[in-house]
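Structure (tokenized):
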């Protein structure tokens, strides 16, 4: 544990991540199953994805970006999120994500697995001051879920195991990607905004070929990642 800027930051040894993902295998398996039960297919990266119809003019996308950055509590159209994702610049995992911690926010579509997490877990926990984020300690070590209480105590939830960071192609472009060591999941990121020194990423969590939900990560410069 480290105390930095009045914040207590916890770190776990690697074996904790390996054991935790084994213990929670039934839950993680069910999370993957739920992706196949989403009301929409949410398949955006298979052969021929270029011909898929996605809505949103440049003006619409600019307005959508503003709504997301304002953290408005609304449901988003997934096709518009895909279109926005395609319009954004890529980011490099090693140069722009590794060695940093991030604060997360789920973007609801009313049709994703992450929506369930938002209503069943994230919102109830927020009532007692607990919020979520991610932390990438190195290119090969990371926390896919870093919780914080009142911005004072930061602690990883290692039930999904360790993650690494690399660049992988999704929808035709190679960009920063979070790879789970033990899960068939990936998170792909693009740069949503870096205005006024505040870096915000747009992310999509996928189970194999299915998009299981969308979210943003905002750089948290107040805490070290290692």
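Design, position by position:
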């Amino acid at each position: 544990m480290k105390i930095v800027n009045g914040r207590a930051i916890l770190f776990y040894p690697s074996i904790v991540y390996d054991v935790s993902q084994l213990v929670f295998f039934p839950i993680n398996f069910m999370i993957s199953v739920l992706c196949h039960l989403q009301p929409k297919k949410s398949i955006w990266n298979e052969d021929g994805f270029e011909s898929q119809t996605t809505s949103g003019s440049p003006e619409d996308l600019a307005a959508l970006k503003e709504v997301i950055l304002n953290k408005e509590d609304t449901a988003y159209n997934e096709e518009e999120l895909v279109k926005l994702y395609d319009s954004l610049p890529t980011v490099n995992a090693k140069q722009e994500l590794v060695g940093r911690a991030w604060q997360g926010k789920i973007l609801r579509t009313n049709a994703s697995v992450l929506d369930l997490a938002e209503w069943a877990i994230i919102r109830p926990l927020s009532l007692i001051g607990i919020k979520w984020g991610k932390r990438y300690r190195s290119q090969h070590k990371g926390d896919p879920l870093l919780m914080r209480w009142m911005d004072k105590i930061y602690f990883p939830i290692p039930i999904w195991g360790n993650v690494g960071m690399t660049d992988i192609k999704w929808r035709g472009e190679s960009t920063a990607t979070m790879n789970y060591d033990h899960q068939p999941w990936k998170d792909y990121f693009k740069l949503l905004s870096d205005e006024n020194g505040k870096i915000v990423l747009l992310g999509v969590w996928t189970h194999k070929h299915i998009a299981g939900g969308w979210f943003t990560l905002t750089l948290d410069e107040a805490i070290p990642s290692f």
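Reviewer-requested clarification: The chain is about 30% helix and 35% strand. The chain has one domain: 2-220.
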